[in-house]
Amino acid sequence: MTTDVRIAARLAEEAGRLLLSVRAGGCDDSTALGRLGDTESNTLLTTRLAESRPDDAVLSEESADDPRRLEAERVWIVDPLDGTCEFSTRDRVDWAVHVALWEAGKGITAAAVSLPALDVVYSSDTAVLADRVTEGVRIVVSQSRPPSFAAGVASALGAEVVPLGSAGAKAMAVLRGDVDAYLHAGGQWEWDSAAPVGVALAAGLHASRIDGSPLRYNESNPYLPDLVICRPELAERLLAAISAENAAE
Ligand SMILES: Nc1ncnc2c1ncn2[C@@H]1O[C@H](COP(=O)(O)O)[C@@H](OP(=O)(O)O)[C@H]1O
Ligand SMILES: [Mg+2]
């Protein structure tokens, strides 16, 4: 395991533990609980990165965007709490911490996703694509904002649509073989997908924009509105079905 991956995994785990304690502390106001989780986890991640990688830039959902990252060779792209809504909902386990390293000319070179409520950390050096555990194709989508074409794509593939919170939780569900694909469109940011995509690609999954083009990170505008992560053998059929649905819409 490289030192960068080890740092990513350790920080994702440490922030996850902090979030579990914030959650256990209790708070009747779910919006305030989510905000506290976002802030505390972001402080931990940015402090630790400044200590262990002082020369690197950071792009975080919860920090002001520092334009110096556009000149940097190494940028950590972090989402301190992905699935804030689910984190704030009692007994939900579909929320995550994302830590990824982007390097100029290389893309995402180290990544970790922790699912603290499930006590698991996935990293780009150790993640392994599991065998499928279900019959038939299953496509996981956002519970609150599923793509408009999800039902049409599912119908074309004879697939089942499964709603779940958090981009990290959904991507790791594909890795675990619980589902076959994660489909998203209509809005998202680089921090939502950088670490999940880094882990997914390292494990041999397909990950791209919904038009099949590569996902690019550390762009001046970090808006990255759509993606598909799926088992490699499904990619061609899934991208063709998305394209057909979009043409028909
Ligand atoms: N239409 C949209 N516009 C912007 N962000 C979106 C979005 N749909 C989903 N996301 C973000 O993607 C992440 C996963 O969403 P979902 O659980 O709905 O699949 C969430 O990140 P955060 O929880 O970090 O804000 C959510 O805010
Ligand atoms: Mg997010």
TrEMBL record:
Coiled coil stretches, renumbered: none
Domain of life: Bacteria
MF GO annotations: 3'(2'),5'-bisphosphate nucleotidase activity; metal ion binding
UniProt cross-references to CDD domains, sorted A to Z: CysQ (cd01638)
Gene3D superfamilies (alphabetical): 3.40.190.80, Fructose-1,6-Bisphosphatase, subunit A, domain 1
Keyword Metal-binding: yes
Signal sequence interval, chain numbering: none
Reaction(s) catalysed (UniProt annotation): adenosine 3',5'-bisphosphate + H2O = AMP + phosphate
Key word Metal-binding present: yes
Necessary cofactors: Mg(2+)
UniProt keyword list: Magnesium, Metal-binding
Positions that bind Mg(2+): E61, D79, L81, D82, D192
Any one Gene Ontology BP term: sulfate assimilation
Protein name per its UniProtKB record: 3'(2'),5-bisphosphonucleoside 3'(2')-phosphohydrolase
Source species: Prauserella marina
